[in-house]
Amino acid sequence: MLQHLAARKSYKPFTKGLSGLVSRPDTSRLAFVGVIQGFRRVNDKQANVDMVEDWTFWQSTSLMNVSGRAVGRAYNEWLKGIRSQYGDNTLEGRLVVVHDELESQLGKVTVKDGSASAKGHNGLKSCQASLGKTNWWRVGVGIGRPESREPDVVSRYVLSKVSAKELDVLQRSGVGVVDALEKIAAGQR
Asked: The whole model's pTM is what?
């Protein structure tokens, strides 16, 4: 989902950073700098464009079931950098974990407080155990559920390849994910 959103928002490609993979907004723009020079890339300050606050997308490179420590480490590293950049140690960020939601129909987007029941999702359990008192949100993207509740069947289902039709539904759910992220960023959640 994050790769899809980063591409749709014209973010920079994911690269190593914050103990995982990071994609941030492309803060350079093409600006006309003179008849001889033509157009060149400049950062927003050089182009006299106010930089719009935007999201930082981060992906863990660790196993999902134990990703909580990496999420906490990346968030703290990111927050330290933001505080240093703006010279304000009181700044707080909004941490949002986007995850698959087995209990929801394919493509349905849900928003919950990070401390809500993980319902067996080991990645969320790991985040809950590692983030301590950090206030965070969860945005779940439904992947549906097999009829059987047998652990082996569920595991195969979750780890199976996504069909082209399923991928299309999941990508269309990106609109709901962006809407959820915007509401969280605006303090409406």
From this structure: 0.82
